[in-house]
C-alpha cells in the first residue's frame, strides 16, 4: 500500500450582501464569504488538501482568481475537477478530517448536510469524512466575526 497526505487551509473575509456557502451548503446568515468564486472556504481547503497530497500545486494555480471563467463559480465544481485529477492518479481517499473555525453562525446544525454533500461529490462513504466546527473564542479576525477559516487533512491510499 502507498499512502499520501495533504493539508489544506483557507480563510475568507465575511461581508454583507453575499450568501454563505460552506461545504457546498447554503447557510442562512447575515454575511457571506468574499471570493472570486462562491467563497466556500471549506471546499477550497479540501481542494488544496487533495492537490497537496497529489503534489499538484494548489487551487490558485489550477483555478486562478484572475480568470473570468471562475467568477462566481460554485466551489463544488472546482472540487469535481480536483476529483477527476484524483481519479486519474490511481489514489483514493482514505480519510478526510475538516476543521471549520467560525465564531458565528453556529454550524452544528449544518454538519450532517455538509458531510452528505461532500461525500456525494467525492464518492466516498461517511466513515471517510469527519467535520468539526470550532470558534476562536473571540480572538483575531475569525473571533471578531470578520472571517471564517478552514483546515483539512487528506489521507490518500493506493493498493498494489
SSE class: alpha+beta
End-to-end distance, in Å? 6 Å
Uncertain runs are: none
- Please tally the helical runs, counting DSSP H or I stretches of 4 or more residues: 5
CATH level 4 superfamily = 2-C-methyl-D-erythritol 2,4-cyclodiphosphate synthase
Question: Hey, roughly how much beta strand do the residues contain?
Answer: 25-35%
Strands of the widest sheet, in order across it, are 4-1-7-5-6
By DSSP, the count of extended strands is 7
**CATH class membership:** Alpha Beta
Query: N-to-C SSE series?
Result: EEEEHHHEHEHE
Please name the CATH architecture: 2-Layer Sandwich
Shape, please? globular
Percent range of helical residues = 25-40%
CATH topology-level name = 60s Ribosomal Protein L30, Chain: A
Mean pLDDT: 96
Number of domains as seen in the coordinates: 1
- Specify the biggest β-sheet: 5 strands, mixed
Rg from Cα: 15 Å
Structure in words:
There is one protein chain. The chain is 30% helix and 32% strand. It has helices at 41-53, 59-62, 75-89, 111-122, 140-143, and strands at residues 2-16, 20-22, 25-27, 31-33, 92-101, 129-134, 147-158. The strands form two sheets. It has a five-stranded mixed sheet with strand order 4-1-7-5-6. It has 160 residues and is an alpha+beta fold. The chain has one domain (2-158): 2-Layer Sandwich (60s Ribosomal Protein L30, Chain: A), CATH 3.30.1330. The mean pLDDT is 96.
What layout of secondary structure does this protein have?
Elements (H helix, E strand, L loop, with lengths): L1 E15 L3 E3 L2 E3 L3 E3 L7 H13 L5 H4 L12 H15 L2 E10 L9 H12 L6 E6 L5 H4 L3 E12 L2
Parallel strand pairs: 5-6
Antiparallel strand pairs: 1-4, 1-7, 2-3, 5-7
Helix pairs in contact: 1-3
Amino acid at each position: 500500500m502507498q499512502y499520501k497526505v495533504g493539508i489544506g487551509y483557507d480563510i475568507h473575509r465575511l461581508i454583507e450582501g453575499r450568501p454563505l456557502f460552506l461545504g457546498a451548503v447554503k447557510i442562512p446568515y447575515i454575511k457571506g464569504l468574499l471570493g472570486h468564486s462562491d467563497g466556500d472556504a471549506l471546499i477550497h481547503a479540501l481542494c488544496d488538501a487533495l492537490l497537496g497530497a497529489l503534489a499538484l500545486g494548489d487551487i490558485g494555480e489550477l483555478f486562478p482568481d484572475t480568470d473570468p471563467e471562475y467568477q462566481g463559480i460554485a466551489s463544488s465544481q472546482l472540487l469535481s475537477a480536483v476529483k477527476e485529477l484524483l481519479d486519474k492518479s490511481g489514489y483514493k481517499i482514505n480519510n478526510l478530517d475538516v476543521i471549520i473555525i467560525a465564531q458565528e453562525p453556529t454550524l452544528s446544525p449544518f454538519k450532517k448536510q455538509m458531510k452528505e454533500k461532500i461525500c456525494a461529490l467525492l464518492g466516498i462513504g461517511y466513515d471517510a469524512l469527519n467535520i468539526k466546527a470550532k470558534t476562536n473564542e473571540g480572538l483575531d479576525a475569525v473571533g471578531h466575526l470578520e472571517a471564517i477559516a478552514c483546515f483539512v487533512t487528506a489521507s490518500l491510499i493506493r493498493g498494489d
